Amino acid sequence: MWGRSNSSVRPRGRNCYQQTDYSEGTSSASHCCIEKHQAPNLKRTYRQRAYFVATRSTRSPRSFTGEDSSEFHVHGGVAVINGLLDALASMPKFKLAEPGEFTRRAFSNGKLDLTEVEGLADLLQAETEAQRKQALLQADGSLSKLYENWRHVLKHSVANLEAHIDFEETETLEDGLVDNVVKNIEVLSADINKHMRDGRKGEILRRGVKAVILGEPNVGKSSLLNVLCQRPASIVTPISGTTRDVIQVTLNIQGYPLVLSDTAGLRKDSQDVIELEGMSRAVDIYQKADLVILVIDFQNYSNWCHRHAADFKTYILHYIKELGVSDLINDPKDGQTLFKKECVVVLNKTDLDSKAVCDKIHKNIVKLSCKTEAGISDLVTVLAQHLKILCGEPSQEHPSMNQVRHREQLLKCQKHLQSFLEDASKNKPDLVIMAEHLRKALTSLGKLIGTVTSEEILDLIFREFCIGK
Fold it and tell me: Which residues are in the TrmE-type G domain (predicted)?
């Protein structure tokens, strides 16, 4: 069996050498499986002894997959790699590796659990430092250790409860055994609740923070997108309403992933069918966004100030109402923050400020000019602060779940634990039913880490890997 990856040729399997060819100056590589008695035949078939630089063997269970493996290091060059692959293909019992097959073997042999496998897959796809850190912690077992501790509590609780059911009448059992089980489950349920009330930080970090640039037509939304991504991703003209569709780019903001969308300008007086569709899409993107960048034109604000004796906050409330996104504003009774979502207010075109009007505006407002790029570094700093709030900081002590699958299984587990606690609060609780609730909760945790699996779930997870991983 062999498969291609970026750097190696790795034959693996039971009673076989794993041969990994690290090519110099080329990204070609392959993975294959060679029986021990076939290794000499490879040299005779390949006929190029000078190409073999070194061979390294790893015995089970110390290899990545937990199987015997051998690595052949050869000189670089496409012809060299192709010659080796032709030689391997001529030998019996060889097949191309499926995507993720080696990691799946590691999982089957108990070298990795399912959360560690998912962490490894995320590590291969990580694009920013924060994503890399989160994936590396998960691949290293941070989530696995937490969930295994919870399984340990559940297993002992089930064992104690069943012991009480089976031996209460014939054996002398510890006083308060059932009460202790109930207390342990109460603590466990609280821990799971706390783990799930994380604002989905791990999931947001894994997929990237969805941000939308909102504002009236011609306030500089597309210009801001182009400045941030340092390329002309969006068309910019003096004509109002140039942007009709959603333009999306992915950025790395101080280690955090930002999926930024430029949208059509929002206004109430348009009769253009295409522009109306663009505005509808803009509102739809806004509804799904984690972060809003609200862009205001300095000239428009300055003109408004001449007509109204009000502060900048009053103008923001008026501006948002005119955009038709009043649901962005928080009810003063619900909290002290102005916005329901994470929001960055940007005052653009400040290069036109000749009377130092901007100096009087609150410091939390980002003042910049897309034309001169003054203030862009301030915007990046503010964006990073908001991204840190949304994504959190991955750590070994407080790991974050980052898969919808994790949350689904934990919700099922929590449901069974709550059923257990409800039955325990009754005057005459049925211990048999209570034990069944705990067994179902244990099954949900087993599905989470992979001790209880289905082929459908495994196929879904491992297909995310490239061939050879």
Answer: 208-388
> Does residue 34 register a pLDDT over 70?
no
**242 phi, psi to nearest 5 deg:** -65, -45
What kind and span of H or E run contains 446? Answer: helix 431-449
3-state DSSP helix/strand/coil percent for the chain, to nearest 5?
50, 15, 40
From 225, 203, 204, select the one nearest 213 (Cα to Cα): 225
Two tokens, residue 446: 């087993």
Residue closest to 312 by CA, chosen among 368, 267, 357: 357
Alpha helices in 290-403 (DSSP H): 298-307, 312-323, 376-391
Write a three-state SS string for 391-423.
HCCCCCCCCCCCCHHHHHHHHHHHHHHHHHHHH
- Alpha carbons 267 and 324: distance in angstroms, whole number: 8
Other beta carbons within 10 Å of 38: 18
pLDDT in tens, 156-204: 999 888 888 877 655 555 667 889 999 999 999 999 999 999 889 999 9
For residue 64, give every residue at least 6 positions away whose Cβ sits within 8 Å of its Cβ, in sequence order, or none.
102, 106, 111
Give the residue, 437 or 80, on which the prediction is more confident.
437
Q: Which residues contact 101 (CB under 8 A, 6 or more apart)?
A: 1, 3, 462, 467
- Mean pLDDT (the chain) is 83
Task: Write down the pTM of the prediction.
Answer: 0.81
* Cβ pair 340, 330 in contact under 8 A: yes
Task: Give the contacts of 450 (CB within 8 A, at least 6 positions apart).
Answer: 107, 113, 114, 115, 117
Cα separation, 61 vs 108, whole angstroms: 12
Cα separation values, 32 from 36, 45, 451, Å: 13, 15, 28
CA pair distance 140, 399, nearest whole angstrom? 11
Tens digit of pLDDT for each residue in 326-367?
A: 999 987 766 668 899 999 999 999 998 766 666 667 777 999
